[in-house]
Amino acid sequence: MSIMYARVSVLKTLLHLRFGPATIKKHYNVKRNNYAIVDDKDVNFFGSLMGAQYVLQDAGTDDLLCYNVDFLRSVRGNSKLVLRPGTTQEISEILKYCNKRHLAVCPQGGNTGLVGGAVPVCDEIILSMARLNKVLNIDEITGIASCEAACILENFDAKAREKGLVVPIDLGAKSSCHIGGNLSTNAGGLRVLRYGNLHGSVLGVEVVLANGTILDLMSNFKKDNTGYHLKHLFIGSEGTLGIITKLAILCQTVSSSVHVAFVGLNSFDSVLKTFLNAKRYLGEILSACELIDERSLDASVKQYNLKSPIENYPFHMLIETSGSNAIHDSEKLNFFLEHCMNSGDILNGTVTNEVNKIQEIWKLRELIPTALIRDGFCFKYDISLPLRSFYDIVPVLEGHVGKLAKRVCGYGHLGDSNLHLNVSCEEYSRELYERIEPFIYEHTAKLKGSVSAEHGIGFTKKNYLKYSKSSEAITMMREVKKLLDPSGILNPYKVLN
Hints:
Elements: H1 3-19, H2 40-50, E1 55-57, H3 65-68, E2 81-83, H4 88-101, E3 105-108, E4 125-128, E5 135-138, E6 144-148, H5 153-161, E7 165-166, H6 179-185, H7 192-195, H8 198-201, E8 202-208, E9 214-217, H9 231-234, E10 243-250, E11 252-253, E12 257-265, H10 268-282, E13 286-293, H11 294-303, E14 315-323, H12 326-342, E15 348-352, H13 355-366, H14 368-373, E16 377-384, H15 393-401, E17 407-413, E18 418-425, H16 430-436, H17 439-446, H18 471-484
Parallel strand pairs: 2-4, 3-4
Antiparallel strand pairs: 1-2, 5-6, 6-10, 7-11, 8-9, 8-10, 12-14, 12-15, 13-14, 13-17, 16-18, 17-18
């Protein structure tokens, strides 16, 4: 048995043993577009191009399960073919061939997305990026790092840290997500407050267009004002305009002084006041400000047998500082905490600069997403809301779904107004699903929020794009798609209807 088939077999078994086939739901009805159907000639061509060991066919009913099912087990495709190219040139030849044959393609990275953007909807060919995983160069002087798209974020960051640098994005899924997928969805993560969105950090990309054209937009300069910044078309385009194969990103220097405070609060009003004071008193060293409500913390503590350093409160905040002078940073943080406790906003808390203790506190936040999945099934929503109304939607939704839900909770990046709203239940419920959607998006639109803060639109949100984009903007998006992918072979059924 080849290594590739062994991997598929193991993952398939884990999916069935842990979740059971009945938990994988296909709660949609999509009419297949008029694409060609893969035949033996196509398979033979791909095998001759890459080697037969990198062409995975559906020899049995579930051989491709791990490629066809998304992370949340809520969307499932029916692809019969997975291609695993190893170079940009191979991807170019694959797309050139598929474009001529009118074969639909679904690019896939680490498959950690939450909106069904990385799995096929029908029988699209899955283009796995997993083999394009090389770190190409890291320059400690300029801070510029370049790599192939399938570098796992945690591995890429580890290589950067060897040079005293840090990749300016950090996600809970960092041990399995691909940096190229992060770009394709314009992922935000835990430290957007410090580093900003990827649009501001990415210096250049290499992209393969639908017709096989290799577009070299790589750059080694922060300032390169030579015409249209085409790279921005592909950051956040979710593989619908082109496939990112390489990237160059500006990394920051590793902070020599990191402190984390974990505090408890009684009201969201106190949360807002504490956030304002964090910006006021911590200023340039503030690197993360996360909100965790009572039910979210309860999920990670119980499902992973963790221990919170303080007792449970209605709200918790994880505040991180990153600087270069431990004494200076400690003084600022202690002054901030003393001020907030004297005002009565912070009721209790702990602060540390010990690496192990910092990691244990961050676990409480980073493990929430998967802890909620362990409830049975979890509907996840990634939205941006005006900060004053950031948490109001949680009790509103809780009242709307009633006893259909096991748990309704909210946590997320307070520093950039990104709420992760979760509704868990014992098992997938169509009734609960229809109770949540489109209500959640209609309510978000009323508040002038965004239906997607950092996970993209993918398949599951494409009908709700209208709540955050004007009809004129959506029309222009369609025109850009038609220009770059006139045959519509790249990641069809995603983002746009």
